UniProtKB/TrEMBL annotation:
Lineage: Bacteria, Bacillati, Actinomycetota, Actinomycetes, Micrococcales
Family matches, as SMART domains: HTH_ICLR (SM00346)
Xref: Gene3D superfamilies: 3.30.450.40, Winged helix-like DNA-binding domain superfamily/Winged helix DNA-binding domain
Chain ranges of the IclR-ED domain: 80-264
Name this polypeptide is given: IclR family transcriptional regulator
Amino acid sequence: MPDFAELSATAPPVAGAQVVSRIAQLLRLVGRDPNGSPLADIVRDSGLTRPTVHRLLSSLAAEGLLVLDPASHTWRYGPEIFVMGTVAAPRYPVDELARPALQRLADATGESAFLSIRRGLETVCLMREEGSFPVRSFVLHEGVRFPLGVASAGLAILSALPDTEVDEVLRAQAGLTERWGAQNAAGSIRLNVRATRDRGWALNPGLVLEGSWGMGAAVFDRAGRPAWALSLTGIEPRFRPDRQQFLAALLTQESALLTARLAER
C-alpha cells in the first residue's frame, strides 16, 4: 500500500485550492499595516489583476473578514478576524508569556521591543512594547512581514536552523534583492548567518532602512526549533558597539527564559 507522502504527491489538486490560496495571500497583505492597505498596494504585491483582487476583497468583506474604511479607502481586518483570533488565542500562550519579557526589555533599554513568529519563509511581528527613548524607529510594527534572513528577528531564526534548511530557504527566496536591495542578497545573508552564530545574537545594521538598527535572539519551541524571536530596534547611535553587549545580554537572557517557560506550558 502506498504511504501518505506518495498519495499526496500523486493526488490531483483540490478544486478551489487556488482560490483559497489567493484569499490567504490577500488576508496576509491586508494585515501588514494596522492602519489599512490601499487597493493599489494589494494589487501590486499580490500579482493578481485589479478586478480579481477587488472581487475577492469584497467577498471577504461580505463575510465580515475585512472592512473597507470609507474615509481612507484602505482595507482592514474585520470583526470576524477578531473573533477567530480570540478563539485561537488560548492554544498559543506565547502572547501572555512574551508580554512581560517585552516590558522588561523596553524598561531596561529604553528601546522598542518586539516578538515575531516564523510563518514559512517569513517572520511576522506579533507584538511590541515601546521604550522610553523619545526617538524611535518605525520600521517594525504588528503585522509587518519580513523574509527570513532580513531584519534581526528573521536573521536570528534563520541562523538557528541547520545548514541544509538555510540553503533551502535561500533557494526559495530567489529575487530577494529586487525588493530588499543588494545588501540582502543570498551571499550577504550567509555571511550574516555565520556572524550571528558566532555572536549568539543577530544584528541588523540598517540593512532594511538606513539608520534603523536592530538586534534579535531566537526563541525555541518544545522540539528545539526556532519558532519565534525577540528583538530590539532603534536608531543607530543607540546600537553602537560599546552598548551592543549590554543589549545582547538582556536579549539573550529573555529569549532563554521565554523558551523555558514555553516548554513548561
